[in-house]
Design brief:
With about 300 residues, this protein is mainly beta. It has a single domain, classed as Tachylectin-2, Chain A, CATH 2.115.10. A five-stranded mixed β-sheet has the order 17-21-20-19-18, with no helix packed on it. It has a four-stranded antiparallel β-sheet with strand order 1-2-3-4, with no helix packed on it. The protein is globular, with a radius of gyration of 18 Å. The chain binds beta-D-galactopyranose.
Length: about 300
């Protein structure tokens, strides 16, 4: 799979799982992401395609992906629904809750003009769905655009979302069932305007790779670190290495997953004029002996 290009599933169809996440449940990897497999809507202020839903793919080797259908489907019947095709549904992320036995999906829920700025939540008994929409809301009454969720070692989960019109990153603790925020939150990285957060933990340190705010256009990734999820995050540097590292290899962070003890960064390579043809990359993350991060460019993703 050539990094930076559109990828294909085992049936030869283009993989539609943008702004996604890869997570292992049982012995299978699941890839959830935005199904953008329609034409760009003409004359929209921000380039967009109608919402189709959240796709689900499964794989054993992270290279051969089988399409499992839409885990969460658009709601064509109700123009007021946050799942209506005319709305925005981005960056879906899924967690499994041990206590309730439910799979919980969080995503950025918005109007086409991006002024609604909410987080959406859906749940399912099965990782392949169907996920049932629960609510969309402003977590802790804070606006919420780009986001991710992160499950800590102790099973407590957190929503990381760009807030205060993207001026800060907010870290909001989730309720025990992961379907809401519990009221405790902090605003970190003040005035840094970071989005597209992706997280992992290694050797006593949490790391967050994020992008700047330039819509679908690439910019320089930066990583931040902190020994506590709700502590004072510190921006360090651009971890990428190689040609076009200053513009994240024409990509933007989507998620970081762990496979067999190593960490991998997923990138989206947006094609604003034809979003459905946006490509993907998966790149290994190196944690250096001095605890700095490096993400070198690699032409191909060969799996594990
Ligand atoms: C980006 C964001 C994407 C999408 C896009 C719309 O900054 O990361 O998820 O919202 O803006 O312009």
């Amino acid at each position: 799979m050539k990094n930076g290009q559109i990828w294909y599933d085992v049936d030869g169809n283009d993989i539609q799982a943008h702004g996604g996440c890869i997570i292992k449940f049982g012995n299978l990897y699941y890839w959830y992401g935005e199904h953008k497999g329609g034409p760009n809507v003409p004359n929209s202020k921000v380039e967009r395609v109608d919402v189709i839903g959240v796709s689900c793919y499964t794989s054993q080797d992270l290279v051969n992906w089988k399409y499992e259908g839409l885990a969460l489907e658009a709601d064509k019947s109700d123009p007021e629904s946050p799942l209506h095709p005319s709305k925005v549904l981005e960056r879906p992320k899924v967690l499994y809750n041990e206590k309730t036995g439910k799979y919980v999906m969080w995503f950025h829920s918005d109007r086409a003009d991006y002024q609604f700025a909410r987080a959406g939540v859906a749940i399912s008994d099965n990782p392949k769905g169907p996920f049932v929409f629960l609510r969309d809301f402003t977590p802790n009454k804070q606006d919420s655009r780009d986001m991710t969720v992160y499950k800590d070692k102790d099973g407590v989960a957190y929503l990381f979302h760009s807030a205060n019109r993207n001026k800060t990153m907010n870290v909001a603790r989730l309720t025990e069932d992961y379907t809401n925020v519990d009221g405790l939150f902090v605003s970190v990285l003040p005035d840094q305007e970071r989005e597209a957060p992706a997280l992992f933990f290694y050797d006593g340190m949490y790391y967050m790779i994020s992008s700047g705010c330039t819509s679908w256009n690439p910019n320089a990734a930066l990583y931040a670190e902190c020994p506590h999820l709700m502590g004072k995050w510190k921006l360090i540097d651009n971890p990428l290495e190689g040609k076009d590292a200053r513009i994240t290899f024409y990509g933007q962070s989507a998620y970081i997953f762990e496979a067999e003890g190593a960490f991998y960064l997923m990138l989206d390579h947006w094609k604003p004029d034809s979003l459905r043809y946006s490509g993907y990359s998966i790149l290994p993350i190196k944690v250096n002996p001095d605890k700095t991060l490096t993400v070198p460019w690699q032409e191909e993703w060969l799996g594990i």
